[in-house]
Specification:
Layout: E1 3-7, H1 15-31, E2 36-40, H2 51-65, E3 71-74, H3 83-91, E4 108-112
Parallel strand pairs: 1-2
Antiparallel strand pairs: 2-4, 3-4
C-alpha cells in the first residue's frame, strides 16, 4: 500500500485519545510498509487551529527526531511550492496524484516512512 488514510478527529476524541490512535496508526502503517500516512485531524471548530492538529505536529516532530518517520508535511504546505511539499514528493512520487496535493488543506498532515 502506498498511502493509508486515517481520520483521528472522527467522533471528536480528546487530544490524548487522538494521539494514542495516531501513535498506533504510525506503527501499523510503518510495519505494513506503507510509504505514507495521511492523517485527517481537522483544523479546529474556531478556525484558529485545533488542539489535535497542534498535538499531531508535535508528535510527528518527535517521531522524526527519533527516526521513526522520515518526514512529515502539514497540509497547508503540501504543494509543489514549498520545500516540505517537494521533499514529500521526492520521497513518495505517487503522492503527486493525491487529491489534497496543492490544495493547502489545513486539516491534514502527511507522514512519510
Amino acid at each position: 500500500m502506498i498511502c493509508k488514510t486515517v481520520n483521528i478527529k472522527k467522533n471528536m476524541p480528546l487530544v490524548s485519545q487522538a494521539m494514542t490512535q495516531l501513535g498506533n496508526e504510525i506503527w501499523l502503517a510503518k510495519y505494513a510498509r506503507c510509504h505514507a500516512l495521511k492523517v485527517i485531524h481537522g483544523y479546529g471548530s474556531t478556525g484558529q487551529g485545533g488542539a489535535i492538529k497542534t498535538a499531531c505536529l508535535k508528535l510527528c516532530a518527535d517521531r522524526k527526531r527519533t527516526g521513526v518517520i522520515r518526514h512529515f508535511v502539514r497540509g497547508e504546505d503540501f504543494t509543489p511550492f514549498t520545500a516540505d511539499g517537494r521533499k514529500a514528493i521526492e520521497l513518495c512520487p505517487q503522492l503527486k496524484s493525491d487529491v489534497d496535493f496543492g490544495r493547502q488543506n489545513d486539516g491534514i498532515t502527511i507522514i512519510l516512512f
